[in-house]
């Protein structure tokens, strides 16, 4: 890591950005098809669709080796040029205040809330907290704080990581709702297209294994979170979740079994995503 530290990035704290979009009915239809689900009976858009709106639109020529836009050393950039190449959306705290509806005009107001440097087990880490407010036709619909972590590169020539040891094969008997699926390449491809995500760990197997050190294509963190919200909506009903907090704990890998589970009710709903060996992929809580 270069000599720059969080002290050099204080000018970015409080920086704001506004993006505008529209809830296109055809795009919502494609999102529903990707998740194999029907539209809500009241004509609203299911929760989690806001992650497909107001997306970065960097030209292809400005993308780096990983498929992410290169972070320029410019006073005009929204986030500072953090000199750590591996970027991951690690967690979010989401409040759903009103459902989005097809045809609405959307505005997302974003603000850099904090930037923190830490030392982790795999090296230096930088956490950026970004606060978002998503409005539909001028009314606040979603409030969210995202935690983005920047990490050092994988060691050169390191073999792909083996599956972390799980405590046991996954047992869903302690949960109120359970859905098992195997994320396939088509699901990852469609979600990348819907979110305009060109990060190569989701579609380029040689890059994911040889450059980033994963043992396969990586399932998007927000896709796993979307699948957990979908489970909650199947259990409680459409747009019933008022609060949803999630934290990624381990990568979910394409082609490997993924168990989505839920238990509890009211303000004490617990959700989780687990690998077949019992290893937790994502932890989440909700209020419904």
Structure description:
The chain is α+β, with helices and mostly antiparallel strands and 288 residues long. The chain has one domain: Thiol Ester Dehydrase, Chain A, CATH 3.10.129. Helix content is 15%, strand content 33%. A 10-stranded antiparallel β-sheet has the order 1-3-4-5-2-7-10-9-8-6, covered by helices on one side. Helix 1 runs antiparallel to helix 2 (185-194). The protein is globular.
Summarize the structure.
The protein contains 4 helices and 10 strands. By secondary structure, it is of the alpha+beta class.
Write the layout of secondary structure elements.
Layout lengths: L15 E7 L2 H11 L50 E11 L8 E16 L2 E14 L2 E13 L25 E5 L3 H10 L10 H7 L9 H16 L6 E6 L9 E8 L2 E8 L4 E8 L1
Antiparallel strand pairs: 1-3, 2-5, 2-7, 3-4, 4-5, 6-8, 7-10, 8-9, 9-10
Low-pLDDT segments: none
| Radius of gyration from the alpha-carbon trace, in angstroms | 19 Å
Spell the H/E element sequence.
Answer: EHEEEEEHHHEEEE
Strand composition percent: 25-35%
Give descriptors for this structure.
Thiol Ester Dehydrase, Chain A, 288 residues, ten-stranded antiparallel β-sheet, alpha+beta, 15% helix
């Amino acid at each position: 890591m270069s000599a720059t530290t969080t002290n050099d990035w204080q000018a970015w704290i409080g920086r704001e950005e506004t993006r505008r979009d529209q809830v296109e009915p055809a795009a919502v239809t494609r999102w529903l098809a990707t998740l194999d689900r029907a539209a809500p009976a009241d004509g609203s858009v299911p929760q989690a669709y806001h992650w497909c709106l107001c997306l970065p639109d960097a030209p292809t020529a400005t993308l780096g080796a990983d498929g992410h836009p290169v972070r320029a050393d410019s006073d005009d950039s929204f986030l500072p040029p953090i000199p750590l190449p591996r970027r991951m959306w690690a967690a979010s705290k989401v409040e759903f205040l009103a459902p989005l509806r097809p045809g609405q005009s959307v505005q997302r107001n974003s603000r850099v809330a904090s930037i923190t440097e830490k030392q982790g087990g795999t090296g230096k880490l930088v956490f950026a907290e970004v606060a978002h407010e998503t409005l539909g036709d001028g009314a606040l619909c979603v409030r969210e704080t995202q935690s983005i972590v920047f990490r050092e590169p994988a060691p050169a020539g390191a073999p792909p990581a083996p599956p972390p040891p799980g405590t046991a094969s996954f047992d869903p008997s302690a949960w109120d709702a359970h859905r098992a699926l195997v994320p396939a390449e088509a699901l990852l491809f469609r979600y990348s297209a819907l979110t305009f995500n060109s990060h190569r760990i989701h579609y380029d197997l040689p890059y994911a294994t040889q450059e980033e050190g994963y043992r396969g294509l990586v399932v998007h963190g927000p896709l796993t979170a979307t699948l957990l919200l979908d489970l909650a909506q199947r259990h409680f009903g459409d747009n019933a979740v008022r609060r949803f907090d999630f934290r990624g704990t381990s990568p979910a890998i394409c082609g490997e079994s993924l168990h989505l589970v839920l238990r509890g009710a009211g303000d004490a709903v617990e959700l989780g995503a687990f690998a077949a060996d019992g290893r937790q992929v994502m932890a989440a809580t909700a209020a419904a």
